[in-house]
Write a structure and sequence with these properties.
4-stranded mixed β-sheet; transferase; binds uridine-diphosphate-N-acetylglucosamine; 14 helices; binds phosphoenolpyruvate; elongated; 23 strands; UDP-N-acetylglucosamine 1-carboxyvinyltransferase activity; pyruvate; cell division
């Protein structure tokens, strides 16, 4: 078993190139199943979630290859409509193969995704949408089986703007007969990125970036070459690192427009941020102001940045109230941060964080991906040495994190331990 060891950091200084977004890349990989032609995806991040999705695609019948950071995928036909159980459990986003499989091949069978550490994460909205498109869905023995000779366009209102349900239904609607309208759709930038890739494949989509999507189904889609958007959560994580260490970091390959709530909260906390067309510079201030945060669907504050911002607030000059509205159980980092000396009280879906002058290094365990990132950030600012276990979570979503942090001056290494 491996762990990450971190010593209290000097202020982070230098530049970092942000990788492509995990949450854009995974649906884009699923979308390659919508065509029998070759899809080429550039600038792929090195993530265990990407490896798991490659396994899922190959298992289903796609010929998927990675050369350097370019992925090619070609799925001329299905070997099986049943998604592999093991990869499915490792990768929640694998549920996104359901839309493409149903739309192109008329059948899909997937192990129902279980709960994960941050919440139960049901797929009822995905299934309700597929039913509205004419699919017959049965549940049994832990599997969902869906069939449809050909999906038919429909008007679908999402009870909650679910990212995954919007993506799954958007992909399915591209090959459905007639027009589909998605109301109260999620508006995350990664959905827009998926939509742009689908349009480059020949899909007809109107309203991208809004919560009202109109999709005109096509008989078939073509191959595509595509480069996904930069990872706004990775960018945000490095920004918090700079803010917590009083550093000065230039982040390259960022879209500031995707980072509005994070930039606003970091500025409120005292950081100075200069925006450029494809990059930004962040300078931390010696004093961190406590800020309140409420996670919301985009364009609200991203839940995927809530744990990292909580790490920052642990060193604030007052009290922060951090409210998590998207996932019912996304405070698992609280116990670990408290072990490092943080003063945090959970009250239902809010955490009340009283700033302390110093965190202390100790052995902690990452309970999920962004909680792991929060612990790394806390470790950079903490006195002494921090050892972080549970790296399988962190490796799902951060591309060469230690290498990038080391290039900024951090003392961080991975050891067999
Ligand atoms: C691979 C990927 O892109 N993951 C992101 C995606 O996850 P994901 O697509 O799973 O997130 P959703 O937006 O679907 O989930 C948000 C909330 O809706 C609930 N829900 C969702 C679907 C459903 O059918 N029924 C239901 O109740 C979930 O349990 C959760 O409480 O968006 C989340 C919210 O921005 C991010 O934190 C994840 O990083
Ligand atoms: C929750 C996340 O991802 P996933 O939906 O893949 O679990 C995340 O990226 O923080």
């Amino acid at each position: 078993m491996q762990s990450i060891w971190i010593e209290k950091s000097v202020p982070l200084e230098g530049k970092v190139v942000v990788s492509s977004a995990k949450n854009a890349v995974l649906p884009i990989m699923a979308a390659t199943l919508l065509t029998g032609e070759t899809c080429t995806i550039h600038k792929m991040p090195r993530l265990s979630d990407v490896q798991a999705m490659v396994e899922v695609l190959n298992h289903l019948g796609s010929q998927t290859h990675m050369k350097y950071d370019t992925l090619t995928a070609r799925c001329e036909g299905l070997v099986t409509e049943e998604a592999p159980y093991e990869a499915m459990r490792r990768l929640r986003a694998s549920v996104l193969v359901m839309g493409p499989l149903l739309a192109r091949f008329g059948k899909a069978r997937l192990p129902l995704p279980g709960g994960c550490n941050i919440g139960v994460r049901p797929v009822d909205l995905h299934l309700k949408g597929f039913r509205a498109l004419g699919a017959e869905i049965t549940l049994g023995n832990g599997y969902v089986t869906a069939t449809a000779p050909r999906l038919t366009g429909a008007r679908i209102y999402l009870d909650f703007p679910s990212v995954g349900a919007t993506e799954n239904l958007l992909m399915a609607a591209c090959l459905a007969k007639g027009t589909t309208i998605l109301e109260n759709a999620a508006k995350e930038p990664e959905i827009m990125d998926l939509g742009e890739m689908l349009m480059a494949m020949g899909a007809k989509i109107k309203g991208l970036g809004s919560d009202f999507l109109i999709i005109e189904g096509a008989r078939q889609l073509s191959g595509v070459e595509y480069t996904p958007i930069p990872d706004r959560v990775e960018a945000g994580t490095f920004m918090v690192g700079a803010a917590m260490t009083g550093g000065n970091v230039l982040l390259q390959n960022v879209r500031c427009a995707h980072l509005r709530p994070v930039l606003a909260k970091l500025r409120e906390a005292g950081a100075t941020i200069t925006e450029y067309p494809k990059s930004l510079r962040i300078k931390g201030s010696p004093k961190i102001h406590s800020v309140d945060i409420k996670s919301l669907p985009y364009p609200g504050f991203p839940t995927d940045m809530q744990p990292q911002m909580m790490a920052l607030c642990c060193l604030g000059d007052g009290t922060s109230v951090i409210t998590e509205t998207v996932f019912e159980n996304r405070f698992l980092h609280v116990g670990e941060l408290k072990r490092m000396g943080a003063d945090i009280l959970i009250d239902d879906r809010s955490a009340v964080v009283k700033g302390v002058s110093q965190l202390q290094g100790t052995k902690v365990e990452a309970p999920d991906l962004r909680a792991g990132a929060a612990l790394i950030l806390a470790g950079l600012a903490a006195k002494g040495v921090t050892q972080i276990m549970g790296l399988e979570h962190i490796d799902r979503g951060y591309d060469r994190l230690e290498e990038k942090l080391r290039s900024l001056g951090a003392s961080i290494e991975r050891r067999d331990a």
